[in-house]
Amino acid sequence: MKKIIVAVLVIAVLAGAGLIGWNVYEKEVIMAPENLIVGEWKTSNNIYSLVFTEEGTASGNLDVPLLGTVSFNGTYTVDEETSKLTITYSLYSISYTDTKTFVLTENTLSLTDDGTGVTTNYTRAVAESDSAAA
Hints:
Layout: H1 2-30, H2 33-36, E1 39-42, E2 49-52, E3 57-64, E4 68-79, E5 84-91, E6 94-104, E7 108-113, E8 119-124, H3 128-133
Antiparallel strand pairs: 1-2, 1-8, 2-3, 3-4, 4-5, 5-6, 6-7, 7-8
């Protein structure tokens, strides 16, 4: 009987530790902004898009004064403490660094230009296979 009680206690402790470990992992890894931002984001009119990868690369198209809408490839970083998203990219051999304040929910990414105060809202793009299944 003692062996059964000890076995049940050991299983309960291991299950509790596993649950605590999963909750910490989910909060610190899965729900971290640098992980939630991964994916494709589009404006409601589908004119502007951003794609962020787990490897820290960014691509998409954006509006550049005097140039209009241009495509870019670059890298990005997320500073969770200051809610800043920084994208570094090159256009026509000139390097740019663009830092925006971000607000991120599960399916919405709002980027605000600190200089102009203009906010652009993006929605997480749904893959065609996901929308067909829905």
